[in-house]
TrEMBL record:
InterPro entries documented for this protein: CRAL-TRIO_dom, CRAL-TRIO_dom_sf, CRAL/TRIO_N_dom_sf, ER-organelle_contact, Ig-like_fold, MSP_dom, PapD-like_sf
Gene field: LOC107224223
Membrane spanning residue stretches: 451-470
GO CC, any one term: endomembrane system
Keyword annotations: Membrane, Transmembrane, Transmembrane helix
UniProt name for this protein: Motile sperm domain-containing protein 2
Length: 485
C-alpha cells in the first residue's frame, strides 16, 4: 500500500499539535526516543498509516496509544539485562531464518511452554524484548510468527498469552505481521483455535497459514526450515545477547554514552568523574553518597538515597529518575524539602531481578528545583521548570548481604568482562530454574498432602456409612425374625 509524503506530514503535524494542546497522558511526557522517531523519520509513521488503511485520524489514535503504552511499559529501555534471562535461554520463542518473502521467522516452540509455570508479566517483557530487538535489527520490516505445534496438547495451550501476543500486533506494532504460520496443529486444539480466530481482525485471518511437512515449502524454503520440520537446517537454539553500538574512546573506555532516564531527555554521561556533579553554581542539595549500596533483608533487596537541603532559607522540590524503571521501585520518587531538612528515599529491587543480574549498569538521577511558590503543584512545577533542575547522578554498587558485606558483589562488579558476565548470567539463570523447580515441587507436595487428607476423610466417611448400613440391615433382620415368631 503506497503512502504519500503528504499523509506522513499530516500525521506528524497532527501528533505534535495534539501533544502541544493536550499534553501526554503521563505528566512527564512520552519517551524522547519515540518523539525523535516521529519527528525525524518517516518509516514508523508510514506503518501506522498502512495499518489503518491510510486513515490519518485512526493512525493518529493508534500512534498516540502506542506512545503512551511504550512509555508505561518501558519498551525503549528493555534489554536482556532487565528481563528474565533464563526465560530467553529456554528457547520457547526466538527468531531464526526467514520465510519465502524474506521476513524473519519468530518461532514459538509450543511444546516447551506450559501455562501457569512462569510469571506472566515476565513472559510479556520477554516477547516485547524480541519485538524491539527485531525492530532494530530489521529496521521495522515485517516478521512472520511460526507456531511449531508438533507434539503439543492441552497442557501447552495458553489462551491468555496468545491473546496478549495478538494484542501487540493489533494495537502497538503497526503493520509488523507478515504471516502466522501454524505447523502441525493437533486436532484437539481446533475448538481453542476458533476462539483465537475471533480475536483477530479480518485482514489478519487471511495471513494464517496451516502447514505440515509436505506443505511448509510453500512459505519456507527447505534451507530455512529446521530439520525437525523436514528441512535442511539442523540449528539448535542458543541465546546470543544483542550487540548494541556504543561510543568509546581510543583506550576502550566509555566517553559519551547516552543514558535514558525514565522520564527525561537522554543525557550524556561523561564517565565516573561526572557522577555526583551538578550544573548550577549555587548548590541546593547534598547527597550522602554517590553510590547506592543494595542489601538483602529477608527476600528483598533495597538501598537508600540520603540527601539534604543545604539551603537555610529556601524550600526545594526533588525528583528521582532511573534508567531502569521496570527494575526498581523508588519510594517516594518526588517530594519537598524544608530548609536544612534531611530526607531518605528507599530504592527496592523488584521481584524477579535479585537472582539473575547485579544492578551495576543501572543509574539514578536525583534532581532538585527551588520553590518560589509553596502552594504550587509539584507535578506542574517539574513539567514547566524541570529542564533547569540541578542534577546528581548516582550509580549502584551491587548487592550486599544482611550484614552489609558487599565484597562478593563488588568482585563481580569489578570483574565484568564479557566472558565473566556470560558465566555469571548462566549461573543466575540456573539458580532461577532451580528455584522454579523447587516451587513447583513444593506446590505438588502441598497438593499431594491435601489430596491425602481428602482421601483419608472420604475413607472414614465411607466406613461410617458402611457401618451405618450394616447396623440398619442387622436391626431390620432382627425385627423380621421377631415378627415371624
Amino acid at each position: 500500500m503506497e503512502v504519500s509524503a503528504q499523509l506522513i506530514t499530516d500525521l506528524r503535524n497532527k501528533f505534535f499539535k495534539k501533544l502541544e494542546a493536550d499534553g501526554a497522558p503521563d505528566p512527564d511526557g512520552f519517551h524522547p526516543a519515540d518523539i525523535a522517531r516521529i519527528r525525524d523519520t518517516d518509516n514508523w509513521l508510514k506503518r501506522f498509516l498502512q495499518h489503518n488503511e491510510l486513515n490519518v485520524q485512526e493512525a493518529l489514535n493508534m500512534l498516540w496509544d502506542s506512545c503512551d503504552w511504550r512509555k508505561k511499559f518501558g519498551c525503549n529501555d528493555i534489554t536482556e539485562n532487565n528481563v528474565r534471562r533464563d526465560y530467553l535461554e529456554e528457547g520457547i520463542f526466538f527468531p531464526h531464518n526467514k520465510d519465502k518473502d524474506g521476513k524473519t521467522l519468530l518461532i514459538f516452540k509450543s511444546k516447551l511452554h506450559f501455562k501457569g509455570t512462569k510469571d506472566f508479566g515476565e513472559l510479556q517483557r520477554c516477547i516485547v524484548y524480541w519485538f524491539e530487538r527485531l525492530e532494530r535489527q530489521d529496521k521495522g520490516t515485517q516478521i512472520s510468527v511460526f507456531f511449531d505445534m508438533a507434539d503439543t496438547g492441552l497442557s501447552n495451550l495458553d489462551m491468555e498469552f496468545t491473546k496478549y501476543l495478538i494484542g501487540l500486533f493489533k494495537t502497538y506494532y503497526p503493520n509488523f505481521l507478515n504471516y502466522i504460520i501454524i505447523y502441525e496443529m493437533p486436532w484437539v486444539l481446533n475448538t481453542a483455535f476458533k476462539i483465537i480466530k475471533s480475536w483477530l481482525p479480518a485482514k489478519a485471518i487471511q495471513k494464517i497459514k496451516f502447514v505440515n511437512k509436505s506443505t511448509l515449502k510453500e512459505y519456507v524454503d527447505a534451507d530455512n526450515a529446521l530439520s525437525a520440520w523436514g528441512g535442511n537446517d539442523d540449528y539448535s537454539f542458543t541465546f546470543v545477547p544483542e550487540e548494541r553500538a556504543t561510543t568509546t574512546s581510543n583506550n576502550g573506555k566509555l566517553e559519551n554514552k547516552k543514558v535514558h532516564f525514565v522520564d527525561g531527555s537522554p543525557m550524556t554521561e561523561q564517565g565516573p568523574s561526572g557522577i555526583g556533579d551538578h550544573e548550577n553554581e549555587e548548590s541546593l542539595l547534598s547527597i550522602d553518597s554517590e553510590v547506592i549500596t543494595f542489601k538483602k533483608d529477608k527476600n528483598e533487596y533495597s538501598g537508600t538515597i540520603t540527601f539534604k537541603n543545604i539551603s537555610l532559607d529556601k524550600c526545594i522540590s526533588y525528583k528521582i529518575k532511573t534508567t531502569s524503571p521496570d527494575k526498581f521501585r523508588v519510594r517516594p520518587s518526588m517530594g519537598v524539602l524544608q530548609p536544612a531538612q534531611i530526607a531518605q528515599v528507599t530504592v527496592m529491587l523488584q521481584p524477579g531481578y535479585a537472582l539473575h543480574g547485579l544492578p551495576r549498569n543501572d543509574k539514578f538521577l536525583v534532581m532538585c528545583l527551588p520553590m518560589k511558590d509553596l502552594n504550587a503543584s509539584i507535578p506542574d512545577l517539574w513539567k514547566t521548570s524541570g529542564k533547569s533542575a540541578q542534577q546528581h547522578r548516582l550509580r549502584c554498587a551491587g548487592l550486599g548481604s544482611e550484614n552489609g558485606d558487599t565484597s562478593k558483589s563488588n568482585f563481580f562488579a569489578n570483574n565484568s568482562g564479557s566472558s565473566g558476565d556470560r558465566s555469571l548470567d548462566r549461573l543466575f539463570s540456573k539458580v532461577s530454574q532451580l528455584e522454579d523447580c523447587q516451587n513447583k515441587l513444593h506446590g505438588d507436595l502441598v497438593f499431594s498432602k491435601r489430596l491425602q487428607l481428602i482421601s483419608i476423610a472420604l475413607t472414614v466417611l465411607m466406613a461410617i456409612a458402611i457401618i451405618y448400613i450394616l447396623r440398619s440391615d442387622i436391626r431390620n433382620a432382627a425385627e423380621q425374625v421377631c415378627y415371624h415368631r
